[in-house]
Amino acid sequence: MEAILQLQPLLNIKSICYLSPKPIIFLHQNFRPLTRSRVTFCSSSPTPFSTGNSLIQQEDTIIFSLLERSQYSHDSVAYDKDVIFLDDSKGSLVDYMLFQHEKLHAQVGRYKSEEENTFFPQFFPNPRLPHVQYPQVLHHCADSININHKIRSDYFEKIVPEIAKAKNNDEGGSIAVCDILCLQALSKRIHYGKFVAEAKFQEARSKYEAAIKAKDRKLLLELLTDKTVEAIVKKRVELKAKAFGQVVQIDEAYNVANPTYKINPSFIANLFEEWVMPLTKEVQVEYLLRILD
Ligand SMILES: O=C(O)C(=O)C[C@]1(C(=O)O)C=C[C@@H](O)C=C1
Q1: Ligand 1, CB within 6 Å, residue ranges
Q2: Which of 59, 195, 226, 227 is the best mutation target for the ligand 1 pocket, counting ligand atoms within 8 Å of the beta carbon and taking the most?
Q3: Domain around 210
């Protein structure tokens, strides 16, 4: 991978702008809506325990990406570690495409956005554009929190083998494209924990301060956990996985066959319960631990 990092010099791009959605911090209904500079903190849910727009939208992106990925195999040439690329660099096709994808996006300012976290933090080119500026909402410690290495290894070891059913197809390029979409969607959702933690801290500073000063991770985790919200997230994700992932089969008389699913909906729901939300909380704890620095 080191070698890949030394690939060609950056292109000189002067006039492209990376468009990120306006950063929106989701909050529970029980958080007051806040505004701060150009950032809107909003709560769109009518119920006291549900999460707001951004996380809900990100669930859709994750589920659609996983569904796309599920049509390909998990033992593809795309994962062959010893593929040789330009300049004798070695890595898998997926590594190479992810790296080049991020490098291009870094050049146009993507990773200047607080919502974005690179998979190659050791290689972090400054944008080639003069005026890439995003609103700064988070404490500066946010830059030092990046758990993409874990997201990446879990994704390839635990998620892909479960969702990718086909055997031995060689569509390595398509597989890499899908993997990049999945990884970036999961990474964004999980690192949104920084925004959640910032919102929670602003709302109830005194609740967290003692635990932060005592560096008490366990207590912080307890304080920020809301099991009712987690149960709602899990159920909503399961319903979405059913709705988006149903294989619709009808005969000539329009009779609909019993539904089958591209990915078992409970797998996706459990993924959120056992992996996405715990990692989001891990990011929240890391952020809170540094917020008083
Ligand atoms: O909504 C919150 O309060 C969050 O912290 C987010 C989140 C999640 O990842 O969805 C994480 C922890 C909580 O226990 C509930 C939900």
Answers
A1: 51, 196, 224-226, 229-230, 233, 277, 280-281
A2: 226
A3: 3-290
Rounded-to-integer distance, Cα 155 and Cα 149, Å = 10
Domain count for the chain: 1
| 30 Cα–ligand 1 center, Å | 13
How is residue 130 written in tokens? 């003069």
Q: How far does residue 126's CA lie from ligand 1's centre (Å)?
A: 32
- Asked whether 83 and 176 are in contact (CB, 8 A), the reply is no
The mean pLDDT value for 225-252 works out to 97
d(CA 229, ligand 1 centre) in Å:
6
What is the per-residue pLDDT across 131-165, written as a single tens digit (0 to 9) for each? Answer: 777 888 999 999 999 999 999 999 999 999 999 98
Residue 204 pLDDT > 70: yes
Instruction: Give me the pLDDT at residue 14, please.
Output: 24
Burial profile 151-167: b = 16 or more Cβ within 10 angstroms, e = fewer: bbebbbeebbebbbeee
pLDDT tens-place string over residues 166-187: 776 678 999 999 999 999 999 9
CA distances from 202 to 55, 138, 140 (A): 19, 11, 15
ipTM score of the complex?
0.99
Residues 79-108 pLDDT 10s: 888 776 655 567 888 998 999 999 899 988
Q: Which atom of ligand 1 is nearest to the CA of 227?
A: 14
Question: For residue 171, what is the domain's CATH number?
Answer: 1.10.590.10
- Going from the Cα of 128 to the center of ligand 1, the distance in angstroms, rounded, reads 36
| pTM score over 0.95 | no
